[in-house]
Amino acid sequence: MKILLLTDYLKLVEKSGVGRAIYHQKEALRRNNISYTTDGKEEYDIVHINTVFPSSLLKSKRARARGKKVVYHAHSTEEDFRNSFRASNMVAPLFKIWLKKCYESADLIITPTPYAKKLLEGYGLKKPVVSISNGVDLEYFKRDNDAGMRFREKYHLEKEDKVIISVGLYIERKGILDFVELAKTMPEYRFIWFGYTNLNTVPSKIKKAVKTKLPNLFFPGYVNREELRDAYSGSDLFLFLSHEETEGIVLLEALGMKTPALIRDIPVYGKWLLDGKNIYKAGDFTEFQRKIKAILNKQLPDLTENGFEVARERNIKEIGNQLICEYQELLSC
């Protein structure tokens, strides 16, 4: 069995969750000794597609015409496309039509969570949809005190500083507006947002938020995996304010690093991340303020070991086993 991992326009997506998911798929197959290629000129049995570019759909159709099996990884939904870029809400219904066209071209659709699976099935797709996590690389994302010190030194943070980080694109859906407002109302804490989006592609309110000048608010831009690992190790709280996700790889990384985490209470996390059990959740701005203070002042129990178990269940090697089962079943059809 040989898998073609389609990586159309990888440079455009490599800094996004889709890019990270492609890397995870490569590692999942490598660690389970499954042959794969990214070269469409080589022979293969199954093509696994992660992007929704026109060329991706064309290659899906060509592969099926050649008698090859096609897996489409559904990272995107209409719901998580909304509140992202300029005019995204206006074109979201058209984007949904395009997504359906792409996903229907496959023999099997994989999506990261049961929540995303339910959304896609609500689109009326006729192809089977299965849920498999994007996974997390726990061999790489391990807590390291030296890495944490390196992070704090780089950003000139004192030992007593309480540091709150988040990771994501500069888009409304990721909760960046609340992040800035929290920094305004909680000057006693340092707020650092990692990630980048060209400000010409986002609404004016997002541009204004990113350009906010506060002594406790920092936007370093996109950083590589090593710097992000340092940040997880050296921060006091991972704050994930996203309003909509299909999963959230960076959240799994934070849990794997045993970084205290506070997330927005949204449906995708309803059944596997439980408030007060393996993570903390908040539903509105006031509750975020209250729980941030309680976590950082150690007035709430430490849930990081329980959160780590969630990440451990989604370790890349285990995700590889799940992918292999789906591949094998597809080839036996």
Reconstruct the topology from this structure.
Blueprint: E1 2-6, H1 10-13, H2 17-31, E2 35-37, E3 46-49, H3 54-65, E4 69-73, H4 78-81, H5 88-104, E5 108-111, H6 114-121, E6 129-131, H7 145-154, E7 163-167, H8 176-185, E8 190-194, H9 204-210, E9 217-221, H10 225-234, E10 237-240, H11 249-256, E11 261-264, E12 280-282, H12 285-296, H13 304-312, H14 316-332
Helix pairs in contact: 2-14, 7-10, 11-13
Task: Write structural notes for this entry.
By secondary structure, this protein is an alpha/beta fold. It contains 14 helices and 12 strands. The chain has helices spanning 10-13, 17-31, 54-65, 78-81, 88-104, 114-121, 145-154, 176-185, 204-210, 225-234, 249-256, 285-296, 304-312, 316-332, and strands at residues 2-6, 35-37, 46-49, 69-73, 108-111, 129-131, 163-167, 190-194, 217-221, 237-240, 261-264, 280-282. Strands 2-1-3-4-5-6 form a 6-stranded parallel β-sheet, sandwiched between helices. Helix 2 (17-31) crosses helix 14 (316-332), helix 7 (145-154) crosses helix 10 and helix 11 packs across helix 13 (304-312). The radius of gyration is 20 Å and the shape is globular.
